[in-house]
Specification:
single chain; about 100 residues; mainly alpha; 5 helices; about 0% strand
């Protein structure tokens, strides 16, 4: 039996990065965006939970802060799945029968 995580226990990886990594480092969104070679808007959107984490951005965080990109991407995936589960009853798909 698989363990299920309640959606309320998931957090957007951008929110986590902001509170646990970026803010403690006392670096501004603009300075971090400049350091990463991305736009301030893209960085702000991620850190405020308005956009998802890409694999390339995860690698940038890994290189800058040492946190594994794999871990960050699993956090993003877990968050997205939890959000989808909130409306899974609206997803109308029948079980597919095996063809003999």
């Amino acid at each position: 039996m698989a363990l299920e995580m309640h959606p309320s226990l998931t957090v957007h990886v951008g929110d986590w990065l902001k509170t646990e990594i970026v803010e403690p480092a006392s670096i501004s969104v603009k300075d971090l965006a400049d350091h990463f070679g991305v736009s301030r808007q893209a960085m702000s959107s991620l850190l405020n939970g308005h956009s998802g984490l890409s694999a390339e951005m995860a690698i940038r965080f890994e290189k800058a802060f040492g946190i594994k990109a794999d871990t960050l991407l699993r956090m993003q995936s877990g968050y997205e799945l939890a959000q989808a589960r909130l409306h899974e009853d609206d997803i109308k798909v029948q079980k597919l029968r095996a063809v003999a």
